[in-house]
Amino acid sequence: MIEIENFVKSPEGLELSALCLDYGYKLAKHPSELTRDQIHFLMAALAYRLKQIKYNRPVEEGTTRIIFE
């Protein structure tokens, strides 16, 4: 699973996740045809995207945010 998370953060993974999440690119004709690795990739890409959105929101003025990864 860590390999997939590392792939999601790589330039190639970010490109593929943008194609799938933003532009509707399909990895299979039907969801039932997705492999387990493809499902894990899509879920990890979505989780990573949501985490980035959460951390990029503006914080209250005068607040310092420290992010550990």
Q: Strand percentage, roughly?
A: under 5%
Helical/strand content category: mainly alpha
Mean pLDDT figure: 87
Low-confidence stretches: none
Distance between the termini: 16 Å
What proportion of the residues is helical, as a percent range? 55-70%
> Cα-atom Rg, whole angstroms?
15 Å
N to C succession of SSEs? HHH
Can you count the beta strands?
Answer: 0
What does this protein structure show overall?
Helix 1 crosses helix 2 (11-23) and helix 1 (2-9) packs across helix 3 (36-56). This protein is mainly alpha-helical. It has helices spanning 2-9, 11-23, 36-56.
Task: Give the key terms.
mainly alpha, 61% helix, 0% strand, elongated
Task: Briefly summarize what is shown.
The protein is mostly helical and 69 residues long.
